[in-house]
Amino acid sequence: MIETQIGITTNSTRSKHFPPIKRGAIIDVYITSSDERLLEYDIDEIVFEKKTQFQKIQILHSKSLGNMLVLDDLQNISERDVIYTDTIMNKPKEDYKDKEIVILGGGDGALLHELLKEKPKEVIMLEIDEVVIQACSKHLRSLCGDTLDEKVGPNYKIIVTDCLVALDEYIKEGRKFDYVFGDLTDVPISQDPELWVFMEKVLQKTFKVMKPDGKLMTQVCGAICTDALKNYENLLKKQVPKVKFENTKAFIPSFMEDWIFGFISFEKKE
């Protein structure tokens, strides 16, 4: 064997054969993990693809994961990822019945769909890109059901807007919520100050629309990104009023890794 001959010639005691990288294919099967490792997926079809003013939107079909939402070449959610929604909701520990809730992002509709099953008083979903809503309504119905078909329901509203602009309006109105869900960008893994300034801006606006006993339920980052998690915790420690940070993790099938979810509330005054 060639492998044996090379081993003898180079005095090598071990070897390993790696599959070739698939280059120039019509369908790109590679997506990076949270810590920028290369992951290969069994993607066999581009179900939907469109570039908007905000991002590149794709619905890709995986043999093992079903349809997957991919934004700017980053995996967001697949039909196998019900655990993502269950974990960010902290089921079954939270009681959403008769609560007022706002979702920042969440255009795939999975979170809105599951929250409505809990009979809340009202859920408002703030999504900046209507094309995400349209694509997921058609191609991710196993996650969102028919929830995205109409923008207004008996106890929910879908508003196509920049969530930061909407939060500013709620702050002016004095509107407060029992739960705010952060389903936006991950916590930065870099030290880029601009990214962390944006993260802090989102947090500060969010805290201003939370009721005194309200909670921020948010996805954070990959569990392997320990430095990013520590930086996030340090950022939270600087907030006024003081907040309490609890977290859990779950393995998300389409991410192929454990993911951290955070639950943030105001510290109780003694």
Automatic annotation (TrEMBL):
It comes from the Eukaryota. The keyword Transferase applies. One of its GO terms (biological process) is polyamine biosynthetic process. The active site is at 183 (proton acceptor). GO terms for molecular function: transferase activity. The keyword Transferase applies. Residues 28-268 form the PABS domain. Keywords: Polyamine biosynthesis, Transferase. HAMAP family: Spermidine_synth. Belongs to the spermidine/spermine synthase family. This is PABS domain-containing protein. It comes from Cryptolaemus montrouzieri.
